[in-house]
Specification:
globular; seven-stranded mixed sheet; 15 strands; Quinone Oxidoreductase, Chain A, domain 1; Rossmann fold; alpha/beta; single chain; 330 residues; six-stranded parallel sheet; NADP
Length: 330
């Protein structure tokens, strides 16, 4: 028996309940961990509300990221033993492998022995943000030294991860944020430039920053009307990678900019990296090396207790956080 967070119908954070459930032993190729910390993601709020790409089966668990200690291993698991401190690459299905529990089971290939200097709270904040940013910027866009990259929703965990990854490869990260409230924090986090979208003209500022070369890469989680000025500031042959849809407004197709500059507009899900063993192995190597050399440092916005999961989800949906929200079981 273990305590787990579940919900029995779609709705707001108040739908989440901590219940005691039976947990079967790990099956072949699975690993069961005693969870010490959880990393929260917007995908979990979307599943709870019924607007995620996956459909909940009630009563449904949820959660994509965890760190803890291996409790048991299934048949054919090699390289991992009970007692190992590990963190979890987000599974393709959080309904099948939910993380919000004191005892949780995951496919062995998604279980990582993270650098020992990371605490459990930090380790739980690693994989979703860095895999998402790495997959978009390095794996797909081929970001290189000197490239200008515009990053929207820059104060999110993925946005901050993208800033760090851009700096690690020698690119020039330009952070976009709605208000000036987080401007200095973004500079302190490594942004070379900050554009305040509600107070400045996006296109004019990006043109001034990128000059005649233009913005080669845009990493966007928002969509909406900003598509027009973003693409107008892009370099010929540039690529815009869309991984979210935070704007409630329609997203126009910037036909003139796409045609005249031969731009690439590409949708992206982190699953593209996770389901490909070769690409995932390359991503793990990049991220683990960055964690070890200090170039990648997860930014934690706030830590909640497991018993306060409802309040943690309310904070998640407030859009006021700077970095990752973590829940601790200790």
């Amino acid at each position: 028996m273990t305590r787990a967070v579940r919900f029995h119908q779609h709705g707001g954070p108040e739908m989440l309940r901590i219940e005691t459930i039976d947990v079967p032993p790990p099956a072949k190729g699975e690993v069961q961990i005693r969870v010490r910390a959880l990393g929260l993601n917007r995908a979990e709020a979307l599943l709870r509300r019924g607007t995620y790409i996956e459909t909940a089966t009630f009563p449904s668990g949820l959660g994509l990221e965890a760190a803890g200690i291996i409790e048991a291993i299934g048949e054919d698991v090699v390289g991992l033993v009970p007692g190992d401190a590990v963190s979890i690459v987000p599974p393709l299905s959080m309904v099948r492998w939910p993380a919000y529990a004191e005892l949780a089971t995951f496919p062995a290939e998604l279980v990582v022995k993270h650098p020992p200097e990371l605490g459990f709270e930090t380790a739980a904040a690693v994989w979703m943000q860095y895999l998402t940013a790495y997959g978009a910027l390095v794996d797909i866009a081929g970001l290189e030294r000197g490239d200008v990259v515009a990053i929207t929703a820059a104060s999110s965990s993925v946005g901050l991860a993208a800033i760090q990854i851009a700096n690690r490869v020698g690119a020039i990260p330009v952070a976009l944020t709605r208000t000036s409230a987080k401007q200095q924090a973004l500079r302190d986090a490594g942004a070379a430039h900050v554009v305040v979208s509600d107070e400045e003209d996006i296109g004019t500022r990006l043109d001034a920053i990128a000059g005649s070369n233009g913005v080669r890469v845009v990493l966007d989680a928002v969509g909406g009307p900003a598509f027009e000025p973003l693409t107008a500031a892009m370099a010929p042959g540039g690529i815009l990678i869309e991984y979210g849809g935070l704007s409630p407004e329609p997203t126009p197709f910037p036909l003139f900019n796409v045609l005249t500059k031969s731009l690439v507009l590409r949708g992206y899900l982190v699953h593209q990296i996770i389901r490909d063993p070769v690409r995932l192995a390359q991503a793990k190597t990049f991220i683990l090396e960055g964690l070890s050399d200090g170039a990648l440092k997860p930014v934690i916005a706030r830590i909640f207790r497991f018993e306060d999961i409802v309040e943690a989800h309310r904070f998640l949906e407030s859009n006021t956080q700077f970095g990752k929200i973590v829940v601790t079981m200790i």
